[in-house]
Write a structure and sequence with these properties.
By secondary structure, the chain is mostly helical.
């Protein structure tokens, strides 16, 4: 049986790769910038699937100051 989380991670990473490819195909700077931003957002979603806790929560207990 497949893991749906792993499948979504692969899908999101694939979407990010596709956006990165579109950066090379775009002819104007605005389109390239938008595709770069989209790729970054897809990668954030993929990372969130792998580690659902926020970055501050995944580092362990809070440090006392």
């Amino acid at each position: 049986m497949t893991n749906p989380t792993n499948d979504r991670y692969k899908d999101y990473a694939h979407y990010a790769a596709h956006c990165s490819y579109l950066v090379t195909a775009a002819t104007d700077p605005d389109s390239r910038a938008i595709q770069r931003e989209m790729a970054a957002e897809w990668l954030k979603l993929a990372d969130a699937i792998r580690s659902p806790l926020g970055p501050e929560e995944s580092l362990g207990p809070p440090q006392l100051e």
